[in-house]
Amino acid sequence: MKNLLTLLILCPALGAGLISCDSNNEDPGPEISSGITMSLKTTGGDETEFIVNQEHIMEGEISATGTGIEQTGWRFFYPVGKTLFASGYSDDNQCIGYISDEQGRIVKNGQFIFENALEMFGHSDDQDTWLAMEIPRAGFAYRRLHFVDVASVTVTKIIDTKIFESKQDSLIAWPTALQVREDKLFVTFHKLDAKGWFTTPDADAAYIAVYPYPDVTAEPEKIIADTRTSNIGVNGATTGLIETDNGDMYSFSCGAEMAGFAPAATKPSGILRIKAGTAEFDDTYFFNIEEATDGGKIFWFDYVGGNKAIARILTDDNGGAWAAYGRDVFNQKLVIIDLVAKTVTDVANVPLHAKRYTSPVTANDGKVYASIETATEAFVYQIDVNAATGTKGAKINGKTIKGFYEL
Amino acid sequence: MYQKRFFSGLFILTAISSFAQSAFTISGNISDAHGNPVPGISIVLKNTTIGDATDLNGDYQLKIYEPGNYTIVVTGIGYESRSQNISLKTEQIIIQNFKLRERTVSMDEVVITGQSEAEALRLKGYAVEVIESNEQKNLTADINQVLKGTSGVNLRESGGLGSGFKLSLNGLSGNQIRYFIDGVPMENFGSALTLNNFQVNLIDKLEVYKGVVPVALGADALGGAINIVTGYRQKSFLDVSYSYGSFNTHRGSFNGQYADEKNRYFVKLAAFVNHSDNNYEMKNVPLYDLELGNYLGDIRTKRFHDNYTSGMLFFETGLFNRSLADNISIGLTYANNRKNYQHPDNNIKRVFGHFHTDNETFLASAKYDRQFKKIHLKAFVNAGQIEEDIVDASTRKYNWAGDFIERAPEDPRGELLQRRSHLVMTDKILNSHIGLDYEVNDNHSISFSFTQNHLDRMGKDLLDAFNKSFASPSHVNKNILGLAYSFASTDSKLKTTAFGKSYWYRGRIITQDYENNDVTTEPDNHNNGFGAAISYKIMHDLLIKASYEKAFRLPESYEILGDGIYVNPNSTLRPEKSNNFNFGARYAHQFPGVRFKAEANYFYRFSEDFIRFNPLGPFGEYENLNNVKTEGVEGSIDVNYRDLISLHANITYQNLTDRTEFDEGLPNTNYKSRVPNIPYFFYNIRFGISPSKRSSENKFSMYWHTRYIHEFFLIWENLGNPNEKNIIPTQLIHDLQGEYSMRDGRYNVSLTISNLADALVYDNFSIQKPGRAVYLKLRYFLH
Known about the structure:
heterodimer, A: 407 residues, Thrombin, subunit H, 5-stranded antiparallel sheet, B: 783 residues, mainly beta, Immunoglobulin-like, Ferric Hydroxamate Uptake Protein, Chain A, domain 1, Maltoporin, Chain A, 3 domains, 22-stranded antiparallel barrel, 5-stranded mixed sheet, globular, disordered N terminus
């Protein structure tokens, strides 16, 4: 009731009804950015997301209280160079590019709209072009590949492609990575039924469509397949295929019911390789993750340098459909995978957790940040890639941090 | 009209009290046993030439210039005569109401009550606002516009005529509020029969129950109910109006009834037609290029695809004052509308050029009403079919400049949906009600009420073969049982009611899961609610009242059913529940020449298990997730000086806070914070002036209406950089209305200028509402 009194005092002209209350805030403009930029998802209500900055994230708390740029609805956050793209999912058909200005403030650098949600992302090797793909959920619709000029946040062209479709078998493609390497674009994909139920009737093979780049054609040059493991990638992750320093590329296959496969794949979860300079799966390479992790399935990975990937492993697949995207089952463990040596090392001091979406990560001096959420708390961890250890940092006052960025 | 005589205000009072005249005024209201006003009743002072006849609302007024003892004699055809002795000494204004018994009913005494029906309702313990529409009947206004000016009510619209709206009542909103027409729940009646379609001259009054709802209105109303009373029973009348105004807006209404008092039957026909192009100017909308989606800058442009057309035809016939029934009738309703959408209700970045909905509603109803000595029986049954077409069939893509491109031949996208769609949803409804009031004696009465509400839903997509929404017929049934006991002290100072309600919810819902298997869900739950209301007259002019209800809102069918695509069914969904408490005081006094009324209420709601959509991967379901506490105060004053000047003002402040401690196991960032995107401070001022003489049969009136809604945040106010937060800015809107009425209200003409200052106003974030608009209305009223 204190607020009411304040209001009534502020508005002596209420009776006259002609003067409105106006609080006189001087506008000091956006906040100064320093340190690390993060996309923070808060708890409660509609779980509003904010872009926040904080110098020290290994102590104290990360919160959006009084700080941060509010976002509309669930968003994908994807950094390309010094630009952070925040792209709407179901509530907003707008994508905004944020940069850090001369004063170090995070500011909007441009925007554009799209028709169906942009759900898969990649970028050119020179990081001048961001690739973003609209993926309609049902029917034999084009996947619309947007070429976005990073500097101006402007769409320069859109290429319509189906990637793959089979009207006979009622199958369409759901891309899970857009990886550019030199003059090729590699698009990993799931084969889903066309009705939009996200069922995976053909889960038991890995597929990659290979396109010329930058002049991407409507039809891929070829589709390569490998039956040693299942469809590559998972829904909502953009790093189904990663490139290491020497130009080799590695893909992960999950196949778990918890990760959205219906029915689950019968092939083991594992990692395949495409050697530098080739556009075929490397017959000599397969890393069986299920064998290496005692039945685990890989749910996410990203490249962190030195032929190593940071990854999350579903320790079992008992949660039911899509459970890895929720907060009922906490069975994801953080590991470091040596892609060449084919070893998996559990990251020490990090609890089992649940995590849906992670922006691409960047390793700095062999360290990456991770948002780790358990049933009752959420914390930032700094992961030492070589030592495979985690250090608990700031408490997250929210549900998750989708990504850590240096703008 | 009656309560208008109480309208008054202290500051005016002091200025004008010197005009007070030393005459006695006796005024009041005459109603029948059911509380319906009776017009044409003669009221005379015995052995004098002073007399009057009741008007349409049953109101009368006598002016006497000499003190002394008089006898009021009340006579009317079909009613037992009554007389009442009255002594005029010092009190200058006397209110004397009569309740008449029909002649056919033998009763030994006329019931003389202290108030009109509306007044009686206000004086019960319920937190109820009764809005009599008379003052606005000549104006271009629909029910929503009348409700907007009511304390505790906030109405948020997404555009012009026919646009989507969300009404909130003391902080609870949307489907937490239930609507009735003459006691019949309007659930699932279709979009052609929403409140914004009804012009005010089709109705008699609105009863707004805040938080606590009497058992006679059988519904799961979590936050209150609004009952539209159409009135005019057993009388002949004709009310025809037509209005034309800005944005090519046409609104016509017809409301006529022939009641044959000799043969005791009536025939009623009511109809409306509404149309607007809604092509108002958007002052600031983003323009994107059609091929690539790049932002080209903001433009100022007119809306070009927002037409709304609706119509209704209602026919009713019945018998009255029979031995079989006091009133028995059957009615048929046909209504339809077509609504074009310029953009989705929550997003102006998508622009439509063809997306629209069509609705067609057929209803058949039967009503029965009978007073058996001490028992009053009321019953209705209502059946209908409602077809809603949602048409997203265009291959074009538009922007705000009105430009479009054709999509590629293989692009299946519609304007809103990922695949072009023409979804036809067919609802069959059946609801019925039986209510019994038993008057044990003058002090005690018991009420019983049972309401049943059945919905059968079937969907078919004519364009999108993959859309399986409601492809298998599903049904849900709600039953609500209520029992109330009321007590009134012999001196009528204390009135109290205690009640219990029982809710049953059952259904059989068939959906398809993501592996295309049929999933049958059979929700079945039962809940009990209860409540009480009490009012006490501390002094003649001062009444205090308190009420409480533990209320429920049963899940909507779509919340349990899902959408058949991405919203999964959830049969374990619990009802939303709320503890609603009101405490208020009401002061009404008649000073010489001035009627004054002031009312203040405190309201408290603790609501749990709010139903909200929870996404899981690309799917999701509705779940019980939030608790919200609402605390607020509202106040209103009414001042009326000799029907010459009137002032109504009301003010509402409410504080809704999130009381959800944990969100999926993690501490809620916003625990105890103010719930965003809900107005929390607003007021209305309505000033009227009627310079015509009271005796004149031609009258001119003018009204100035100001509405203020304080700015509020789209998202939690404690989160985010305060300088960059999205806000819904403060609204200050002035409307000016003038009316001229001839031949005692037979011919009426009015001019309304809404949003006089052409203010840029938004109820919802970035969704601009119309600017200044002018409407002319002609009305013919014969009774």
